[in-house]
Amino acid sequence: xxxPTDIRIIDVQYDFEEHRxxxxxxxxxxxxxxxxxFNVQINVQTLGGKKATGYGSMPLGNVWAFPxxxxxxxxxxxxxxxLADLAVKSTRNCNLCAHPLELSDVLxxxxxxxxxxxxxxxxxxxxxxxxxxxxxxxPIDAALHDGFGKANGIKSxxxxxxxxxTTDLGHFLDSSxxxxxxxxxxxxxxxxxxxLYHLIGALDPLTETDITSRLNDGLPETLSEWIDADGxxxxxxxxxxxxxxxxxxxxxxxxxxxxxxxxxxxxxxxxYSADFNETCENVEYLLEFLNRIxxxxxxxxxxxxxxxxxxxxxxxxxxxxxxxxxxxIKPVVIDESLTDYNTFLLARDQGYSGVAIKACKGQSQALLxxxxxxxxxxxxxxxxxxxxxxxxxxxxxxxxxxxxxxxxEGNARQFCPSANDGxxxxxxxIFNITNGTVGTQILTGPGLGY
Length: 450
Description:
Helices cover 39% and strands 19% of the residues. It is built from 16 helices and twelve strands. A hairpin with a 4-residue loop joins β2 and β3. The protein is globular, with a radius of gyration of 21 Å.
């Protein structure tokens, strides 16, 4: 039976917003220097007659979601922008009155059909991947959750139980989740603060000697300067995945510089994560990398908390890349491969021991994959897509409400700080990092919390 809190869509509006990067950021071996935000506003009305406007925003990260190895950069970006327009029109025509989880479930199949048709019309050499469709349409899903909460006068995280959702998780996942709801896997209140994973890109200077010409824009430029300015204790290291000597040397250099900086600050405990962005040809590369780090830099090895997606995202095409041995050494987290529950199960079968939750894959999917990961006792991390403004607030909300998540990545303040203008003044504890943490305690408003 429908619930009085269910929402229907009245209207949808959107725009695109472009920002240049402060410095280039390398994704999977490809540098990028700007982002385009897809901003969505959805007017909704509950079955009981209450109205509100929900908001969602996300970068169209085509270098990550639809990489140049599939189609040229300009073509993938054009496809995402066209798909965004088509998805808005489809959402506007949706007549279903339901919970956002159920709306998302229906709309996702429509969006995938739109992507398939668009791929044929644009004669793309590679059809638009499911991951790309999820990233493109994620602001729509966010706006639905935001509008649902605001219309009902609650935080959307407090509307995930059977009082609000008609169907249980058995419908969205599998029968083992029958009778269970997302309130079992999320908290009613945000964690007060969370450590921030600061990104060290493959192009980023570590020391003064790495800088050919200073930006002098008032922000830190070397690793030590960033650690001192923000009090960092969590560092995410981007690696090449095809040059073992460089990767090992990079980690050891970062550990040496960090240790010197932290000693001067009186800090004794900090952590790393290593992200290969699927560039390792095989798991043997990862095993050798871990072995070398353990032999040549034991302290760096001990500080390594987890590894992100080391090998190709197409798990079905590469069943030989089993992660069991690597996962016995450090948690190995699935990222690019994770597009639905089926890929979650496949990744788990292939030895992945952790899950990367991302707002850019959709609020609904993030919540569902967070529940699945907890049920199977897997490592949980919330990762970034250089998300500024509202998209980072959404990501911080997920990190602070999903049980088991201990830190959050956020790097727009490094690479695209102009996109945080205005947001930084309104939510200083989120965008101004203090003692290496994001102040998520303020995410208590209706909707997505802000």
